[in-house]
Amino acid sequence: MKLRNIFLQPTAMLMAITMLAPLAIIVVYSLLTRGAYGGVELPWTIENFTRLWDPVYGIIFLRSFWIAAVATALCLVLGFPLAMFIARSGSRKNLYLSLVILPFWTSFLIRTYAWMFLLRDTGIINSVLQALGIIREPLPLLYNDGAVILGLVYGFLPFMVLPLYATLERLDPSLLEAAADLGARPWDTLVRVTLPLCAPGIRAGAILVFVPCLGTYLTSDLLGGSKTVLIGNLVQNQFTASRDWPFGAALSLALMAVAMLLLFAARRNGEELL
Amino acid sequence: MKKGLAVYAVFAYAFLHVPLLILAVFSFNSSRFAVWQSFSLQWYRAVADDANLIESSVNSLIIAIVATLAATVIGTLAAYGIWKRGSAWLSGSLYLSLVTPEIVTGASLLALFQWIFRFAHLRLGMHTVILAHVGFSLAYVVVVVLARLRSYDRTLEEAALDLGATEFGAFWRVTLPYLTPAIAAAAMLAFTVSIDDYVITSLVAGVDSQTLPMVIYAMARRGVNPALNAVSTLVVFGLGMLIMLSERLRKT
Amino acid sequence: MNRRTFLLGAATAAACSRGARLNVFNWSDYVAPDTVPNFEREFGLRVRYGTYESIPEMLAKVMSGNSGWDVIFPSAEYIQPMRDMGLLARLNHDWLPNLSNLEQQFQQPPWDPGLDWSVPYMHGATGIVYQKSLGWEPRAWSDLWDARLAGKLTMLDDPPEVFAACLKTLGYSLNSSDPTQLKAAQQRAIAQKPLVRAYLNAEVRDQLVAGDVAVAQAWAVTAAQAIAAASERSDGVSVSKLAFSFPSEGFPRYADNVAILRESSRQEAAHRFIDYLLRPRVAAAIVETTHTAACNGAAQDYLPEALRSDPVLYPSAEILSRGEWFAPQSAAGQRLRDRLWTEIKT
């Protein structure tokens, strides 16, 4: 057998167990009836999919995609210079890279509580601003879309920085110097040389930020005060509080289908999926 | 330009580390609530006395380390395989594993395991958690490593083959060293998603495999518990020291 | 301890000495620090104590009948469903001599009148916590629609609770599954939403103490903890800046219960554990740690005066008569509520 085929075997087996078999289960669930107290029951039905055809869910889908897109764009803008800095820091690269990821080895919940402590009315930011006399009434920093996006950008920044670093790292500094010597301004170098060369990294980072952002549910609960639901909350609720697994399965299949379509649309002609 | 980047990096690192600083400070707060009172080590004593908290931290570290090692090795090989030949259904299913909401992955994996366990005398435990973690962190590894391979010059490997290297030799001596930075970044991401996962883990964990996030989510149901700040501070401090140490060793 | 229980205890210890142990799956912070260690010492059993964050999480696991857990703590409205699914073991009252310690109202609870499947453990109610500095006292759910509370009010992030408050202001049962009543309740919730700062559960505790939130719909246990934390001692009496009221239109009551899973192969040890939890001193220690009211009436004799007479934990019978227990929802009712809730949050 060819080496590359051997290399693919372990992943194929793993995906069969942890992805395809569960996917089959979700498809089956989505075609069954809700059990009285959770779980699924016969008879077969397609009602879970017809229920999706409802403006309420359309609004939630659009909102979720919008928020995920904004968070991804911000992660790219904020993450790119940081990845560039790390890629150019010579022998300290690994140290700087670890410093990016280190805060994320604490629990998500604990980190988010720390943000809440910063943002709330009696929190550090408002207290400092009030003490300095800049504001009189506390700013409403918590429980709005801004706080949700801040939480998402914070939480997913490393997922942008690391893949960007992985492609920027190989960028030959002499190439950039050559561009500069030929009279290119820094901005031109960035747009004409650097960005095209690290396009695969941008793509990878965008996927790793956008897709998990779509499924997020806790950030909007904790920092958004649960005032609006995102698609992730909706799916989560079906499997927990509402105990409607078939509808939850149908919802998530719809989400997965739309996300896959977006990815296909975003790739250039004949390009690989990943 | 270079100076600008450095200044920016200082701000970026501050942004990333502020929450860490806050939780470290509050782990030394004598009050149970998120209102500063006075310095105290009581929450560290509480952690030391809490067998559940310690055991679940150890479980989390074991799971994250094993799952990261496995996912990094398997994922790097897969990325290479996909890069060489392409495999539509493999890259498709890897991408699907990214887009599946966690609760759906968890619930369906639980159903699958329980169905299998009806025929085998097995129970949920560390093995099911590790299997699930390797499964969902694999896609992260493949995406990152593949991104670097996409900007790799195929002629380098071909040159090695022309000079008489075996296929594996060319991979091992030429391609793998080129991939190292991406593999390091991928491993860090895999470790991160594994050590922080709650939704999937809580569903596939058994009686003996409670992880730190599970204990934290259960405890935080009643609001912040400073013992959780203390244990988080300890975990990050410990891992941070390990990184520093390995950096020192690498340099000497 | 009498001779009979001692012998039973010794027999259990002998039966379980072959490396056996008991697996207890509970909410977090729901026992005193020494509850489990003392049990292990006395009965020579090892206890594996695991915690869950929500009932659905627990249910998803035990539904297979192969989870490995022995003792669980379901809420009252889940007893009947779990029984119907065949998950619970029938209790053997011969092994539970301490059952008689239960308060009168929990000897025949509506969700399990014969105590055949569950033993009531802790109970509480949902009400209103408010800052005394507010200048007026919200005494009814309808007060939570007052425009003065804009941006300073939080509601629970729990559909049955928000529907309960809205239904009660309209004079309906909180378990209603009538579409017209539920739609009217939904309109109430939508009308209230502009005033709501956030939908929060237990996290509201710290924000009440810090003063970010003026009025909150909250569980008694959260309220009791917040009130205790916001207290200052003056002249030997402790005065809190927070207070709690049981809404005049009526309010939800909740109870958690102990039950044994049918899959458990350690039925006898599990019964011993439940009987141990029913001891007055054990239950009193748990009340002191958790600030929750025990269903164990005999435990009250061992409580400090401040807790025993705490009006949040142990309100008068007259107040309690306004309470209504949550009941299981029909599939159709649950689905309608879910749909209406999604609309509230869109």
Protein topology:
The complex is a heterotrimer of chains A (274), B (252) and C (346).
Chain A (H helix, E strand, L loop, with lengths): L2 H28 L2 E2 L5 E2 L5 H4 L4 H33 L5 H9 L6 H12 L4 H8 L13 H24 L4 H9 L4 H12 L1 H17 L2 H5 L8 H9 L5 H22 L8
Antiparallel strand pairs in A: 1-2
Helix pairs in contact in A: 1-13, 3-7, 3-10, 7-10, 8-9, 12-13
Chain B lengths: L1 H25 L15 H8 L1 H35 L2 H12 L2 H16 L8 H24 L4 H9 L4 H29 L3 H6 L7 H9 L5 H26 L1
Chain C lengths: L2 H13 L5 E7 L7 H9 L2 E7 L2 H8 L8 E2 L3 H9 L34 E13 L21 E3 L3 H11 L9 H14 L3 E4 L4 H7 L4 E5 H10 L1 E4 L2 E4 L1 E4 L5 E10 L6 H11 L2 H11 L2 E2 L10 H4 L8 H4 L2 E3 L5 H14 L2
Parallel strand pairs in C: 1-2, 1-3, 5-6, 5-7, 11-13
Antiparallel strand pairs in C: 3-11, 4-7, 4-10, 4-11, 4-12, 8-9
Helix pairs in contact in C: 5-6, 6-13, 7-8
Question: What can you see in these coordinates?
Answer:
The complex is a heterotrimer of chains A (274), B (252) and C (346). Chain A is built from 13 helices and two strands; from the N terminus they run αββαααααααααααα. The longest helix of chain A has 33 residues, at 55-87. In chain A, strands 1-2 form a two-stranded antiparallel ribbon. Chain A has helices at residues 3-30, 47-50, 55-87, 93-101, 108-119, 124-131, 145-168, 173-181, 186-197, 199-215, 218-222, 231-239, 245-266, and strands at 33-34, 40-41. Chain A starts with a helix and ends in an 8-residue tail after the last helix. Chain A is globular, with a radius of gyration of 23 Å. Helix content of chain A is 70%, strand content 1%. Chain B is mainly α and 252 residues long. Chain B has a domain at 55-221: MetI-like fold, CATH 1.10.3720.10. In chain B, 79% of the residues lie in helices and 0% in strands. Chain B has eleven helices and no strands. Chain B has helices at residues 2-26, 42-49, 51-85, 88-99, 102-117, 126-149, 154-162, 167-195, 199-204, 212-220, 226-251. The longest helix of chain B has 35 residues, at 51-85. Chain B starts with a helix and ends with a helix. The model of chain B has no long low-confidence stretch (mean pLDDT 85). Chain C is of the alpha/beta class. Chain C folds into two domains: 3-123 and 254-314, 3-Layer(aba) Sandwich (D-Maltodextrin-Binding Protein, domain 2), CATH 3.40.190; 124-252 and 320-344, D-Maltodextrin-Binding Protein, domain 2 (3-Layer(aba) Sandwich). Chain C has 13 helices and 13 strands. Chain C has helices at residues 3-15, 35-43, 55-62, 76-84, 159-169, 179-192, 204-210, 220-229, 267-277, 280-290, 305-308, 317-320, 331-344, and strands at 21-27, 46-52, 71-72, 119-131, 153-155, 196-199, 215-219, 231-234, 237-240, 242-245, 251-260, 293-294, 323-325. In chain C, the strands form two sheets. In chain C, strands 1, 2, 3, 4, 5, 6, 7, 10, 11, 12 and 13 form an eleven-stranded mixed sheet that branches. A two-stranded antiparallel ribbon of chain C has the order 8-9. In chain C, α6 packs parallel to α13 (331-344) and α7 packs parallel to α8. Chain C is globular. Residues 1-18 of chain C have low confidence and may be disordered. At the B-C interface, α5 and α10 of B face β2, α3, α7 and α8 of C.
